[in-house]
């Protein structure tokens, strides 16, 4: 867990936390939708809400952020 992750996770709804965990496992929106029983558009909306709370606007930025935090230890 990276510094500040617990505080960030506390800001997420229960549904957002479930989706976020699957995002950390590199699941696609379609995979997340199937696993949680949602439609893909619903998952997109949830992911968008998570991104807003993280202060990012695109999945590529999310991937970069996770890479830096996991591999390089950047907070």
TrEMBL record:
GO terms for molecular function: DNA binding. SUPFAM superfamilies: C-terminal effector domain of the bipartite response regulators. Pfam families: GerE. Residues 9-66 form the HTH luxR-type domain. One of its GO terms (biological process) is regulation of DNA-templated transcription. Keywords: Transcription, Transcription regulation. This is HTH luxR-type domain-containing protein. It comes from Candidatus Carbonibacillus altaicus.
């Amino acid at each position: 867990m990276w510094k500040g992750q617990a505080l960030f996770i506390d800001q997420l709804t229960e549904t957002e936390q479930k989706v976020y965990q699957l995002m950390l496992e590199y699941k696609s929106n379609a995979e997340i939708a199937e696993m949680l029983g949602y439609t893909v558009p619903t998952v997109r909306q949830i992911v968008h809400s998570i991104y807003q709370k993280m202060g990012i606007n695109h999945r590529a930025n999310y991937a970069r952020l996770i890479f830096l935090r996991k591999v390089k230890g950047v907070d």
